[in-house]
Amino acid sequence: MLSFESVSLHVTNVERSVAFYSKLPGAQVVLHFPGKFAKFRFGDACIQVVGIPPGPKSFHVELNAPDLDALHGELKAAGIEPDGPPALQPFGRTNFRIHDPDGNVLEFDTPSEPNRDTAVGTR
Questions:
Q1: How far is CA 43 from CA 24, 64, 89, in A?
Q2: Residue 59, domain member (yes or no)
Q3: Per-block average pLDDT, block size 10, for the chain (123 residues)?
Q4: Are 65 and 71 in contact (CB under 8 A)?
Q5: Residue 42: which domain range?
Q6: Cα–Cα distance measured from residue 8 to residue 50, given in angstroms and rounded to the nearest whole number
Q7: pLDDT value, residue 116
Q8: Is residue 101, in this structure, part of any structural domain at all?
Q9: What's the confidence (pLDDT) of residue 114?
């Protein structure tokens, strides 16, 4: 059986990305090769930043957070400006977004209901 391990983001400056991702609540640096690579654990999965210039496509990473309002405030206090406040989306979840220094999008969502994302044709 497959399980999700991590997503790797190509970044122009690893140390700038380390400074950014280290501000996210719950981030744990588990491996760091200065200027080349860093791996952050968030719960059961990881985000890796790799010193390879990003291509024309950016990434969109979704992370669950049990209290979006508190997280929004923590990020602002850490100097990270979200795109806007948490908002209910047409698909039924509340979320907000931030951008890392290379333009990759991090979206913070309320946790999915069990089986919601696997039920075909119920939306």
A1: 12, 10, 25
A2: yes
A3: 76 96 95 94 91 78 90 96 93 89 89 53 39
A4: yes
A5: 6-118
A6: 7
A7: 47
A8: yes
A9: 53
Tokens of 87: 């908002």
Beta carbons within 10 angstroms of residue 62's beta carbon? 13
SS3 letters for 27-76? Answer: CEEEEEECCCEEEEEECCEEEEEECCCCCCCCCEEEEECCCHHHHHHHHH
Instruction: State CA 67 to chain mean position distance.
Output: 15
What does pTM read for this prediction?
0.75
Structural domains counted in the chain:
1
Segment (H or E) for 17: helix 14-21
Q: Does 123 map to a domain?
A: no
b/e map of 28-49 (b: 16 or more CB within 10 Å)? eeeeeeeeebbbbebeeebbbb
Which residue, 46, 63, 45, is CA-closest to 112? 63
| Domain containing residue 65: CATH number | 3.10.180.10
Output the CA torsion 73→78→84→90 (10° steps). -70
Q: CA 63 to CA 27: how far, in whole Å?
A: 12
Tell me if 1 is assigned to some domain. Answer: no
